[in-house]
């Protein structure tokens, strides 16, 4: 049997704090943490580190902005800081720890009146962009999965008039009609970077309110 001095898994603050639309992601990270709990209970070394957004490398810098981009209430943690935190955590006697940079959300508040939909109703536009990217990836994965039967509930998709870069891969309705007997697509003016701003935001809110009132 091989014995390790350290056993580290990198989890996510989504496991500890949650994130709308990512229950499966949070659950999988939580499962890794429970594995570490079991290792510790069995007398083996182990630590799970819940990380927030990571800076310097990865999807945030490649697709969303820079090291000052706010994601889910956090700022990207620079790589030297991540490694320094890891060095400290390895000397701690805790199975699960967290390391993230909290953003100053007070500076992001809307001035009120008119404004953009995302300023008054969503934490940040960056969060919306990150969520959209994650959804495109999920649609691409779902396209490879064929369910035994269609979903019986109603699904409403609100999408931008100008298609996303990956639309050719997932289709105009992102393949929803293939998995649902009752689906509807609303097209809003703009592209996927702007349709939650200005007049388009009012249209989006109107569609959502109409759906809620008709329930």
UniProtKB/TrEMBL annotation:
GO biological process terms, semicolon-separated: fatty acid biosynthetic process
Domain Ketoreductase (KR): 4-55
UniProt entry tagged with the keyword Mitochondrion: no
Matches recorded under InterPro entries: AB_hydrolase_fold, PKS_KR, PKS_NRPS_Biosynth_Enz
Organism of provenance: Caenorhabditis remanei
Claim: Oxidoreductase is one of the keywords in the record: yes
Keyword annotations: Fatty acid biosynthesis, Fatty acid metabolism, Lipid biosynthesis, Lipid metabolism, Multifunctional enzyme, NADP, Oxidoreductase, Phosphopantetheine
Name this polypeptide is given: Ketoreductase (KR) domain-containing protein
Gene Ontology molecular function terms on file: fatty acid synthase activity; oxidoreductase activity
